[in-house]
């Protein structure tokens, strides 16, 4: 058992190093080259992850959400959070936290993605959609997911990863174990293993650049 844990620790350290090196010196910009670089960095970090077809699909969309989390901080738009809304197995919208850019405390990644998805589909219910979030949604975002009737939520990092760099601890305490959380009419899945490590690493990699909400 100790040997297995040691192997896992080495893998996690390697994945952290991949992300660290890949994102060093990335500057915000609109160019295609930068977008390709960001995408490749996340893809490289996920290389070697063994999974089935269903998990591979989830990983693909979760990687996009993680990519958005990095992009938002690099551009100065907001905190290290990303979200992707998927419709008919295709990315409908891909967004990140826009709190600073919009001067709007409600412009979290998930809320922004839901707003854009509703505009794209010209409807207020997203029952045929799934949402992938780089981090566990806060109570506000979870409420928006519930109200939009999204059928499935997949998230990467646990809220504790955000709390560790200064975000409010109510994120994890407000909903877990409550009747509202348990009775929500959507499937909720949290990534585990290497996928969770990569998502949680976003906070360590960006904490020096993002100061808002930190104590």
Structure description:
With 215 residues, the chain is an alpha/beta fold. It has 2 domains: 9-23 and 30-49; 57-207, Cytidine Deaminase, domain 2 (3-Layer(aba) Sandwich), CATH 3.40.140.10. Helices cover 53% and strands 14% of the residues. It has 10 helices and 5 strands, in the order H-H-H-E-E-H-H-E-H-E-H-H-H-E-H. It has helices spanning 2-23, 32-46, 53-74, 99-102, 109-121, 139-147, 159-163, 170-173, 179-183, 193-206, and strands at 82-87, 90-96, 129-135, 152-157, 187-190. Strands 2-1-3-4-5 form a 5-stranded mixed beta sheet. Helix 6 (139-147) links the parallel strand 3 (129-135) and strand 4. Helix 1 runs antiparallel to helix 2 (32-46), helix 1 packs across helix 10 (193-206) and helix 5 runs parallel beside helix 6 (139-147). The longest helix has 22 residues, at 2-23. It starts with a helix and ends in a 9-residue tail after the last helix. Keywords: Hydrolase, Metal-binding, Zinc. Residues 56-170 form the CMP/dCMP-type deaminase domain. GO terms for molecular function: guanosine deaminase activity; zinc ion binding. Belongs to the cytidine and deoxycytidylate deaminase family. Pfam families: dCMP_cyt_deam_1.
């Amino acid at each position: 058992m100790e040997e297995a844990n040691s192997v896992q620790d080495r893998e996690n350290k390697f994945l952290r190093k991949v992300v660290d090196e890949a994102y060093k010196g990335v500057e915000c910009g609109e160019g295609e080259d930068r977008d390709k670089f960001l995408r490749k960095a996340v893809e490289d970090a996920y290389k070697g992850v063994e999974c089935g077809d269903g998990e591979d699909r989830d990983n693909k969309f979760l990687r996009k959400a993680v990519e958005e989390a990095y992009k938002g901080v690099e551009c100065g738009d907001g905190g290290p959070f990303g979200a992707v809304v998927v419709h008919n197995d295709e990315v409908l919208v891909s967004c990140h936290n826009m709190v600073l850019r919009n001067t709007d405390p409600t412009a979290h990644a998930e809320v922004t993605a839901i707003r854009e998805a509703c505009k794209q589909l010209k409807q207020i219910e997203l029952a045929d959609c799934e949402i992938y979030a780089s981090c566990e949604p806060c109570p506000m975002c979870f409420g928006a997911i519930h109200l939009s009737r999204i059928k499935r939520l997949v998230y990467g990092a646990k809220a504790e990863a955000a709390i560790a760099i200064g975000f409010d601890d109510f994120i994890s305490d407000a909903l877990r174990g409550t009747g509202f959380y348990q009775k929500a009419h959507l499937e909720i899945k949290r990534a585990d293993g290497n996928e969770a490590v990569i998502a949680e690493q976003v906070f360590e990699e960006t904490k020096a650049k993002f100061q808002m909400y930190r104590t």
